[in-house]
Design brief:
Elements: E1 17-27, H1 28-37, H2 41-45, H3 61-77, E2 89-93, E3 99-103, H4 105-114, E4 116-126, E5 129-138
Helix pairs in contact: 1-3
């Protein structure tokens, strides 16, 4: 392994630990049909900002399905408590289109109880399936 360097933490140095991991998949066609069939569902699940792209266009069914999967994955990362509100977790667009999570209210309270200080989120959609992985990191 000549020439390769590996970073190792010094004794006593601490960093964040993984507190929870969540993953979810969502069939895009079925999810889009649900949004069409139940007009109020879109507003119940997503904030106004989540429903539109940064340019102001309405999000596609694939994009919304991925965001729904992220909210489900986030709930799983927090131990799936039943009292979380959909609008208390928002998938926002960060630098270069990177998805980020903003939490408040019920989600922020649960995260604080567990010691979560940061989130990692990945969204994807392909072959009619949207998916998301959420990692909750912090100090328990």
């Amino acid at each position: 392994m000549a020439g390769r360097r590996t970073a190792v933490r010094a004794a006593g140095q601490t960093g964040g630990v993984i507190i929870g991991v969540g993953i979810d998949v969502c069939p895009v066609e079925r999810f889009a049909a649900s949004l069409t069939r139940t007009p109020g569902l879109r507003d119940r699940l997503f904030t106004a900002a989540e429903q539109r792209t940064p340019a102001g266009a309405e999000r596609t069914g694939e994009s919304l399905a991925a965001r729904f999967a992220a909210k489900e994955a986030l709930a799983k990362a927090l131990g799936a408590p039943g009292d979380l509100h959909w609008h208390d977790a928002e998938v926002v667009v960060g630098e270069r289109g990177r998805p980020l999570l903003e939490v408040r209210g019920t989600v922020a309270r649960r995260a604080a109880e567990l010691g979560v200080t940061s989130w990692h989120v990945s969204l994807s959609h392909d072959g009619g399936i949207a998916s998301a992985v959420v990692i909750a990191e912090g100090t328990p």
